[in-house]
Specification:
mainly alpha, Arc Repressor Mutant, subunit A, 11 helices
Length: 197
């Protein structure tokens, strides 16, 4: 993903370069995908040296993710795909985003775009690099995060408004992507009403 990755590979052939990860640790060498990923890397170093609680306290003060695993890709699906895709691919991705709450199945998406499920699935993986279901889940997680940051509603309502349907499906998705529940995310990433400076 990173334009700097090939340069880094050629200059430092003895280290492993993973251009799809937020940050990578190999022995005592740490590197990040960019500026915001550098914050994730710094938190990982704090977590390793001083423990989870201090890292989470820092994350809460910065109003950022408490822990994004280094192997996780940069998360904004729409930002990544707006940059990488044009034409019909871009239209499909935007259509999925716009209809993420109503979509009942991947078959429904394929049918809407006049493709067989098998062909749609194959083309999507080839062009986007993940399955349609994985992409749809990421969009729904982004919806849920936005709702949790702006609305103080129960998870059951957040799940319905973001497209997950049930709070259990929302919880499973968060644990899969972040290793924490939506409630834990909300606890550590909601902007406090008043700052004591």
């Amino acid at each position: 993903m990173s334009q700097a990755a090939p340069i880094m590979r050629s200059r430092y052939p003895q280290i492993e370069v993973d251009s799809n990860s937020l940050y990578v640790q190999q022995g005592n060498i740490w590197s990040s995908a960019g500026g915001s990923a550098g914050i994730d890397l710094a938190l990982a170093i704090v977590r390793e040296d001083f423990g989870e609680k201090i890292a989470m306290d820092i994350a809460k003060r910065l109003v950022i993710y408490a822990h994004r695993p280094g192997g996780q890709q940069q998360f904004s699906s729409m930002l990544i795909n707006q940059y990488n895709h044009v034409g019909k691919q871009q239209k499909i991705l935007c259509w999925i985003k716009d209809n993420a709450v109503q979509i009942q199945s991947i078959e429904e998406i394929a049918e809407y775009w006049g493709m067989s499920l098998r062909n749609f699935h194959r083309c999507f993986i080839k062009d986007v690099g993940e399955t349609p279901a994985q992409y749809l889940e990421k969009i729904r997680i982004e919806n849920a995060i936005m709702l949790m940051q702006t609305k103080q509603q129960p998870l059951k309502i957040i799940a319905q408004l973001s497209g997950f349907g049930t709070d259990q499906r929302l919880i499973k998705a968060f644990k899969r992507h972040f290793g924490i529940t939506p409630s834990e995310y909300r606890e550590h990433h909601t902007m406090p009403a008043v700052f004591n400076i």
